[in-house]
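Reviewers asked in the last cycle whether our approach scales beyond single polypeptides. To address this, we selected a multi-component target totalling 651 residues and predicted its structure end to end. The input consisted of the following lines:
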Amino acid sequence: MIRYVLKRILWMIPIVLGVAILVFTLMTFCPGNPAEIILGSTATEDALLAKTEELGLNDPFLVRLGNYLVDVFIKRDLGASWATNVSIMTSIGERLPRTLTLTLVTLFLAFGLGIPLGIVAATHQNQWQDSLSMVFALIGVAIPNFWLGLMFVLLFSVRLGWLPSMGISDGLKSYILPAATAMMGAFATCARQTRSSMLEVIRSDYITTARSKGVPERDVIVKHALKNGLIPIITMFGSTFGHMLGGMMIIETVFAIPGMGTYIITAVNNRDYPVVQGGTIFLAITFSLCMLIVDLLYAAVDPRIKAQYEGQNKKKIKKEAEA
Amino acid sequence: MSNNQEFLEVKNLVVEYKSDGQIVHAVNGVNLKLGKGRTLGLVGETGAGKTTIAKSILRILPDVGCKIRGGEVHLDGKDLLKISENEMRKIRGNNISMIFQDPMTALNPVMRVGDQIAEVVRLHNDGHYDPRKRAEEMLEIVGIPAERYMEYPHQFSGGMKQRVVIAIALACNPDLLLADEPTTALDVTIQAQVLDLIKDLREKYNTAMLLITHDMGVVAQVCDEVAVIYAGTIVEYGTKEQIFDHPTHPYTIGLFGAIPDMNEDEEWLHPIDGLPPDPTNLPKGCPFAPRCKYATAECEKGPIQTYKTADGHDCACCHIADVVKGGK
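The resulting structure, written as structure tokens, was:
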């Protein structure tokens, strides 16, 4: 098992390296002179030339790429923003906890509500509970985030005055409305996914076996069925988690949360290349880690998958022994 | 036959499924009797309603689109179809347990096999057993080393899995065992082992057993009495000797005809011509009439009466006399 984890972590190196090269190349060939963007259109010719030289933009592409990769992977420094001159690592360190908090609260709500709703729908297939849950889920996917966010602000902040409408000054309380807004899509998908996965499991023979043993219906669902139906839900959890870490731009914008999403979007708008590159590399790493955690969760839930992971190693050990 | 001693009595059981708006008549007025410690073989082809009968006794038919329309299931004088779900749950796995057809899918893949056995002990524990110890003991009884308690079903072969299923079924010393084709999914050498195991354990604990099968060989080895079922009705009922030596229903005779005889040089098997009737549209009279060479207009008129040919030997056919004369 440890070998499997190590192998996966080693695999992350080429992945992240590839992402770094790709994003650096793309940004280099973007039209427009960064020096001009930084200094503004009123800058003099001399100032522009000086800035271009200072940014190292006159060097050949491969030299710049090499320098960048050395900075990132050997010196472990993502550089500083062109716009603000603040170290990117510092900015990420500041912003990541906010996005992370938002993501965690969102996922907690989405899965905490979605899984039970999906189970209720599956255990009452084709009855009113099922239809109601699925209508609810459909509404969840169909409502656009930004609109729902504004409606929530209108109701809970303006009318009722229960929760802050924007910013992060109120601690965890500030994250409730943004998370409630952001969770809608994931919640609906989770409910549907849980329903279909549970429907399949509930029809299996081992569920009949459990019933024939006299297991109470609640335990049949929770102890026997849910664990078997969890795999697709875990997959969804992992990818949603990864996406949310970098992709909460709309929510962060609507609720004025200075997180990772707004950081990268602002950088793209300002042609702040180092931030875009650094942010992308960082997200690639976190996404890969999320996927690794998902795969480890599979093994924790399903012994057959765990055996597979261990089996791969055994095969390899055998090969090594033969060689 | 003294009726007082009947341990399990199924009376006039009717079960229907709903499928695509049509009603599937799976079980149509079945009567069964089983004494303590006896074994009744329920024989019939696929789709005849054998599994449905067993699941009805345990009340574990799927909730959706399946209904017990009528009848009674008495266990030790108590009608199982009338008691509450809670009471029924205490009977499942404890007084009545079931062995399923396909051991590959009958065990929960993400639960340790030992825990799957211990679970049923824990549910019905009256303080006698430590569930874990009992589970280990059961593993040993069915011939699996107790050290394998912590393993998962995928680490077991098909025959071993069926042994685990049997261990689960027998862990609480049930009075009645419903064995639904327990050997069908296994290969022949393992079949014999598993069958012997079931036989031994059944004798040891004096468990009554309803053995569902389509294999006459299995019936010959294990059963005391035999019920032949066709399209959801029992067409012939008797002791093993009566059924094997004097089959009287044309369907039963046909079943025996379909078994190759090793002593004779036969080039062809003798299948029964035709197919079983569509269960959504059963004939009004004898369900076997369309395939039966003795059939006359009388067979198609209405429900067929059951005739006694000997003590304890019943046959639902209106041409018994002709069949016996012309049969074999």
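Chain A touches chain B at residues 125-126, 203-206, 208-216, 224, 227-228, 301-304, 307 (CB under 8 Å). We regard this as preliminary and will revisit it once experimental data from Aim 1 are available.
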